[in-house]
Amino acid sequence: MTLQARALLVAAAVGLLGAVPSLAQGPAGPAATQANPSSSTIIPRSGSETAPGATASTLAGVRLEALLTSDGQRIDQGLVWRVFSARNERDGKPKLIATHREATPSLKLPPGDYAVNVAFGRANLTRKITVKPGDGAVEPFILNAGGLRVVADIGGAEPPANAISYTIQSDERDQTGNRATIMTGAKPGLIIRLNAGIYQLTSVYGDANAIVRADITVEAGKLTEAALSHSAGKVAFKLVTEPGGDAVPDTQWSIQTPTGEIVKESVGALPTHILAPGTYAAFAKKAGKSYRRDFLLRPGDVVQVEVVAQ
After folding, report:
1. CATH of domain 13-142
2. Alpha helix stretches (DSSP H) within the chain
3. Domain residue spans in the chain?
4. Each residue of 127-183: pLDDT tens digit?
């Protein structure tokens, strides 16, 4: 199992990272709080709208913009803005008052303090802004974001479609030592937008124990590419009453390590699983009886393990 990670400087980082429509946008931080639609004001894509209960003379104009880095280009697509009031009079919590999907929304708000979250894929930033009387104010949000693309292979070959998925977790741990999960079910080849920082990748090939873990650093304004190589074999299991016979249906299977750790359990006549190379014991249970066969699986093997009910 090997890891190769390289940070690639992107000449047009904003354009590259913003051109991947397949990446789902996900709220984070305060933006994860879903407001009741009846208490939300959605700012139209075509422009600004006067806030309820306010007149044009009492409103102030402010324009929001986001940048990948302090000296980088402005992000011109793929952004979600959420504007919160500083405090809700009822419960003291921030209240979502506007959502906008334009790159540089122009807002009309009563003067005061607001919390604004901007999300760019899984990268996000929340900070306080103060709206003052007058128009023309610009509030820049520096995301310090980069991109991550994972390339996976199986012994140097390209894996079958949807055979590999990976989880992204933060480097920080809570009091119990657990990492925060940023994204699950990610697929190789896609560009994931993330805040700059260190992340742990957990890549799973198949549905059992063919797993690779690696730490990777995402740098602001750069595309980081991580190459993960899996080593595994494919094995099918078959319970027969005599060597070479037909498979017995509805057999309960338990695949274990030599120390008794359960790797995979399944039910069926010919269950097939992808396993990490190693020595295993296959247990087949049928009609209250259990049968065992030990086997060795090498990298790249495609084998059938036949257990004879004797």
Report:
1. 2.60.40.1120
2. 13-17
3. 2-9+145-230, 13-142, 233-308
4. 999 999 988 899 999 999 999 999 999 988 888 888 999 999 998 888 888 899 999
